[in-house]
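In response to reviewer comment 3 from the previous cycle, which asked for concrete evidence that the modeling workflow produces usable outputs, we include below a single protein chain processed end to end. The sequence was submitted unchanged, and the resulting structure tokens are shown without manual editing.
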Amino acid sequence: MSAPILYLVGVAITTATSLIVVAYLRVPLRSILTDLCGTLERANFWLAFCNVTLVLVPLIFALSSEPVVEANRSAVFEVGSQLRWALIGLVVSVVILGIVIGSFIPRPRPQPAVGQERQPA
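The workflow returned the following structure tokens.
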């Protein structure tokens, strides 16, 4: 296979993988964002923002990894190398979005133990 074909195969697999992840996260992410944002319109904006991020970051990683066609190297390994970088980009974007969204989720305050209730001063 030629280098351009390998490159396009890697980019196509990256795009498909990213779209599958976006589809998988769509419903739970919309629920969390609606709760955090207060309105569906705001949540839809941030959902679109997250979707674009989850597609473009892995695609940028995949586009920056060009396969090199050599006689002694299999085309599968070249596409695999490109996909490795794409998956690294996908994981990085998911983790960063998770950290950012998670930082806005209010945490419940710990309840005092029974019998150790605070007395008013």
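The chain has three helices and no strands. We consider this sufficient to address the reviewer's concern, and the full set will be provided in the supplementary archive.
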